[in-house]
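Lecture notes, continued. The same structure-token format from the folding unit now serves as the input rather than the output. Read the line below as a description of shape only.
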């Protein structure tokens, strides 16, 4: 396996129901993760892009959260429908999807 040019981390933090911070798991992160993996496979992008689930990325109230490195760009409130846009624009086109970008005051 070669070192990916970009690496996507999808928060999969799970907390008990009613937890005051909430969790990305309760907001559908698994579906987002599966969609990223599906796009990775469909595009055969294994040598350029890595996709990994992670623990808590921080701003739980604005999740599901996705973090892209090496740029260190965090996306908030991501849905499975946003994954293709993130792939097309950011992962393959090097353009941040500003409408999903976590505000600078948060990240």
């Amino acid at each position: 396996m070669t070192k990916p040019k970009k690496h996507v981390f999808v928060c999969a933090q799970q907390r008990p129901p009613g937890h005051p911070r909430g969790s990305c798991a309760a907001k559908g992160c698994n579906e987002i993760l599966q969609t990223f993996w599906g796009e990775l496979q469909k595009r055969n992008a294994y040598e350029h892009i890595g996709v990994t689930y992670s623990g808590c990325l921080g701003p739980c109230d604005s999740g599901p959260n996705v973090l892209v490195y090496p740029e260190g760009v965090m996306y908030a409130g991501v849905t499975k429908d946003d994954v293709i846009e993130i792939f097309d624009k950011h992962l393959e086109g090097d353009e941040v999807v500003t409408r999903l970008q976590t505000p600078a005051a948060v990240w």
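Point for the exam: The chain has two helices and four strands.
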